[in-house]
Amino acid sequence: MLPSFYSDWKHVFKLDPDREIDDDALEAVCMSGTDAILVGGSSGVTFENTVDLMSRIRRYEVSCAFELSDASCGVPGFDGYLIPSVLNTRRSEWLIGRHVEALRDFGHLLPWESVAGVAYLVLNPDSTVARLTEAEAGISNAEAIAYSQVADKLWTVPILYVEYSGTYGDMDLLRDIRAALQSAQLIYGGGIDGPERAAQAARFADTVVVGNVIYDNLAAAIATVHAVKEAVKE
Ligand code: 1GP
């Protein structure tokens, strides 16, 4: 497969347009050596707050992508766009329905060479994304692996995102999902609070996403960059 804007991502910081980040913290994040900033959030994302955050990130050279889950927030100018579908949602709109509506109305505007679909497996039942999408997050490991294989082997999605947003996930399950994948890039996100967990997740995931800790403990967040890069070398 041809390399894409996300192929080289080992470490990514996820910034939420609906959360405050001051200029010093933003500079630290953008200059950290991370591979990309992914802009996105499960609630409160608007066209205005996305434009605002993107233009602030654009002061730096770091690559910047947008997780586009609502067509009305389709801000142009990002290096890439990830369009999520939730594999284990109970509501088909989050798997395919919204996507059909968005492409019907805006498909002609999308920069397709910089767009990729992402299959989310949502595994923290207490997360905003699980509640919003009514995800069946309390599934067995065997089911989680089966979902991953449906996405990877049957649908050949480019990216599988194992999402534990807000809590640290089951690394044994992540290892087993990794082993079951054929070609999808494996992204892990959730509960990475510092370098140790970042390094653990990097053993199995192609890409490690760090979110909340940016806002709670900036120094610990920055330390995850080096930890992931070192783990990848091993
Ligand atoms: C959220 O996977 C990301 O979509 C990161 O999760 O905020 O828990 O780090 P955290």
Describe this structure in words.
- Pathway: Membrane lipid metabolism; glycerophospholipid metabolism.
- The protein has 234 residues and is α/β, with parallel strands linked by helices.
- It is built from 9 helices and 8 strands.
- It has an 8-stranded parallel β-barrel with strand order 1-2-3-4-5-6-7-8, surrounded by 4 helices.
- Strand 2, helix 2 and strand 3 form a beta-alpha-beta unit.
- Helix 5 packs parallel to helix 6 and helix 7 runs parallel beside helix 9.
- The protein is globular, with a radius of gyration of 16 Å.
- The structure holds SN-glycerol-1-phosphate (1GP).
Question: Keywords for this structure?
Answer:
8 strands; phospholipid biosynthesis; 9 helices; TIM Barrel; alpha/beta; binds SN-glycerol-1-phosphate; 8-stranded parallel β-barrel
Please sum up the structure shown:
This protein is α/β, with parallel strands linked by helices. The chain is 37% helix and 18% strand.
Name given to the CATH homologous superfamily: FMN-linked oxidoreductases
Q: Which class do the helix and strand fractions yield?
A: alpha/beta
Radius of gyration from the CA trace? 16 Å
Count the E strands.
8
Q: What fraction strand?
A: 15-25%
In the sheet with the most strands, the strands line up as 1-2-3-4-5-6-7-8
Mass-distribution shape: globular
Largest sheet: 8 strands, parallel, barrel
The number of distinct helices, counting runs of at least 4 residues, comes to 9
Gap from first CA to last CA:
25 Å
Average the pLDDT over all residues and give the rounded result: 96
CATH fold-type name: TIM Barrel
Organism: Cohnella terricola
InterPro entries: GGGP/HepGP_synthase_I, GGGP/HepGP_synthase_sf, GGGP_HepGP_synthase
Binding site for sn-glycerol 1-phosphate: 14, 161-166, 191, 211-212
Cofactor: Mg(2+)
